[in-house]
User: What shape does this take?
Amino acid sequence: MEILKFTKPELFFLDLKVKDKFDLFQRMFEKLREGGFVKESFITGIIEREKNYPTGLQLSGYGCAIPHTDIEHVIRPTIAIATLNQEIEFQSMGDPKSKVNVNVVFMLALSQKQDQLEMLKELALMMQNQVIMKKIMVTKTSGEFIEIIKNVSI
Amino acid sequence: MGKNFKLLVLCADGVATSTIALVALREAFEDKGMIADFTQGRVVDAEHMLKGGNFDIVISTAGTDLDVETNVPIFSGIPFLTGIGRDEVIDQIKEIVNKK
Assistant: This one.
């Protein structure tokens, strides 16, 4: 899968404990900032975008979110992935007034619109695959995580 | 079949998730030999686009409560991202197309 071009072992947050989505954004942003992947403005971009256009998606038996923002906040493109110890609340992309309990988060920090489209396409297909998603949710190491995704043919 | 049908596909930025929905719909239409004219846009431009566009259906991945006065039916494009309810939406859209 193309997504592996963008993932970095240090940007996997597996079995992460956070109290809400803001806590989650902060934790992911700090690592992204530390690694020089995004600008300081990235966090505000993510929060604003999520407020105006939420990204929670209800799948069969689990929820996912794909927080992202404008490409101008990104320095080096990457995708950070978090699996959550306890699900947290996002607003729904399809109905911003309703809530989705999210288990897996794909935070896109991409610098090209075309990459954003391609990755969303791929992630949408991956999210629909219950077998893979259920494996991902219990994975404890980034090595295992990468192996699972590697074996997906989409 | 073969009537010209106009669909407006909207998402937050007018680029990403609307493209996913648009491609899926176009393929579903082509499979049935249906011809449609697709336009893509941002939800914030919905009102402006609907005014002059003469659209038959709107599909939005960023909420269906568009705060626009219109008689054009609005469908959620989320099924094209999650796969849940995808066939149902396509069937509903096809039904509207066939009635035209």
User: Anything to note?
Assistant: The CA atoms of residues 5 and 14 of chain B lie 20 Å apart. Residues 17-31 of chain B form the longest helix (15 residues). Chain B has one domain: 5-99.
